[in-house]
Amino acid sequence: MRPDKPRDPVAGPDAGPEPPYPVRLSGPVIKGFGRGSKDLGIPTANIPADDLTENHPDLTSGVYYGVVALDPKTLAHENGSINGDEKSSSATILPAVLSIGYNPFYKNTVRSVEIHIMPPLTQPSPTAVAQPTFNRLPDFYGTQLNLLILGYIRPEYDYVSLEALIEDIRIDCEVARQSLLRKAYQQYIVDDGNVSDNVNEDRKWLTTFDSGSANISGI
Ligand SMILES: Cc1cc2nc3c(=O)[nH]c(=O)nc-3n(C[C@H](O)[C@H](O)[C@H](O)COP(=O)(O)O)c2cc1C
Ligand SMILES: Nc1ncnc2c1ncn2[C@@H]1O[C@H](COP(=O)(O)OP(=O)(O)O)[C@@H](O)[C@H]1O
Ligand SMILES: [Mg+2]
């Protein structure tokens, strides 16, 4: 059960991700149990756990923050707005908060990787208030998703109620946002012209999809 104590406003070192982060995960967006939107009002894009199992077997279950990009080639035409300009073929890097594990509140028997994509950091946060609204985009099932995990927030817990789970995820969104707003993390989203080779490589990886070339556009 969740410990009854206040949450830290940020997670991870201010100087930037420390090993094993950044962790790269990819996969097509698949169907989950259909609870994210329906029960919680918080959509999560689920990707298969295979990449995690094969390439990062030691990554513990829990809640993490990071950045994502969606393949513009496989986004349905009407969903072009996710990547900004409808006609654009470039992928936008967006902030994200995610859960890896068995969702103890629901007692799942299979491990899931679920990503909630947040609005650009330049927009006001819809979860900074007691009555939050969570970011909702047009559905993008089947789209290839690249995820760069930049830090760990907390373990997964069971909760006394659905409301308590939703409130903790609301706080996760705020912790992720505040963590990503730090200079060393923001450069994964926006190229300020001063990024290191490593960050540049990660940004390139994020926005490159199978046959495509790197197309980076900031937010
Ligand atoms: C940031 C974040 C934190 C979460 N933390 C927990 C948690 O501590 N315990 C839990 O049981 N589920 C947690 N979840 C998972 C939700 O229960 C999950 O999103 C929901 O069951 C939807 O699943 P679905 O995609 O299969 O529909 C979290 C989800 C997110 C996005
Ligand atoms: N902000 C968002 N973050 C993640 N997925 C979103 C978002 N907005 C809309 N979606 C869509 O909603 C779907 C997830 O909804 P959810 O209720 O969790 O269903 P499922 O159980 O199938 O994962 C995603 O696969 C995606 O197509
Ligand atoms: Mg989901």
UniProtKB/TrEMBL annotation:
<comment type="similarity">
    <text>Belongs to the flavokinase family.</text>
</comment>
<keyword id="KW-0288">FMN</keyword>
<dbReference type="GO" id="GO:0008531">
    <property type="term" value="F:riboflavin kinase activity"/>
</dbReference>
<comment type="pathway">
    <text>Cofactor biosynthesis; FMN biosynthesis; FMN from riboflavin (ATP route): step 1/1.</text>
</comment>
<keyword id="KW-0808">Transferase</keyword>
<keyword id="KW-0285">Flavoprotein</keyword>
<feature type="domain" description="Riboflavin kinase">
    <location>
        <begin position="18"/>
        <end position="181"/>
    </location>
</feature>
<keyword id="KW-0460">Magnesium</keyword>
<dbReference type="GO" id="GO:0005739">
    <property type="term" value="C:mitochondrion"/>
</dbReference>
<dbReference type="InterPro" id="IPR023468">
    <property type="entry name" value="Riboflavin_kinase"/>
</dbReference>
<dbReference type="InterPro" id="IPR023465">
    <property type="entry name" value="Riboflavin_kinase_dom_sf"/>
</dbReference>
<keyword id="KW-0479">Metal-binding</keyword>
<dbReference type="InterPro" id="IPR015865">
    <property type="entry name" value="Riboflavin_kinase_bac/euk"/>
</dbReference>
<comment type="function">
    <text>Catalyzes the phosphorylation of riboflavin (vitamin B2) to form flavin mononucleotide (FMN) coenzyme.</text>
</comment>
<dbReference type="GO" id="GO:0009398">
    <property type="term" value="P:FMN biosynthetic process"/>
</dbReference>
<keyword id="KW-0418">Kinase</keyword>
<dbReference type="Pfam" id="PF01687">
    <property type="entry name" value="Flavokinase"/>
</dbReference>
<dbReference type="GO" id="GO:0046872">
    <property type="term" value="F:metal ion binding"/>
</dbReference>
<protein>
    <recommendedName>
        <fullName>Riboflavin kinase</fullName>
        <ecNumber>2.7.1.26</ecNumber>
    </recommendedName>
</protein>
<feature type="region of interest" description="Disordered">
    <location>
        <begin position="1"/>
        <end position="24"/>
    </location>
</feature>
<dbReference type="GO" id="GO:0005524">
    <property type="term" value="F:ATP binding"/>
</dbReference>
<dbReference type="GO" id="GO:0009231">
    <property type="term" value="P:riboflavin biosynthetic process"/>
</dbReference>
<keyword id="KW-0067">ATP-binding</keyword>
<keyword id="KW-0547">Nucleotide-binding</keyword>
